[in-house]
Amino acid sequence: MKSSRPKYMQIIDAAVIVIAQNGYHQAQVSKIAKQAGVADGTIYLYFKNKEDILISLFREKMGYFVEQIQEGIKGKSSAVDKLFVLIQKHFQILSEDPNLAIVTQLELRQSNKELRHRINDVLKGYLDLVDRIVIEGKETGEFRSTLNVKLMKNMIFGTMDEVATTWVINDQKYSLTDLVPEVHRLLTNGCSSSN
Fold it and tell me: Which fold has domain 50-191?
């Protein structure tokens, strides 16, 4: 499979840097090739076009988010603890890769409708993970039995997304991970069965 080849990931990682530094529309395939240390034509052995690079980049990186979160929630017995890990890992991954943060929070906001649909398809795996945590919280009684799962999933993802976007827009001048406890508190209070 092409995604398991080293050059594929080399190009993906290069694309993150080039798109973060130049913006998606100004990120030429030739710049990505140069950053990756490959010939321009090599890019087309792995990707159809620049749009395919962006979607593939997002798929790989979101897969990494899901993998890290799943690993982190192993052994956690409560939905509240799993939600904390979800927020912590999400913010930690973005904090550790400022270029990825710029790409996911700013450059993936494309006006092209087809591109938006493809991005939403990739996001589904991540949102399913959030869904499972919310459903588990309802089943264990940690969260209200009347809680609207779809709405809560959107609130959790939307809150994390907005907090991360604000951090990127403010040039990442403060610690995103320092905000984890407060974001967790706000979200758990919003779905707590004691409310």
Answer: Tetracycline Repressor; domain 2 (1.10.357)
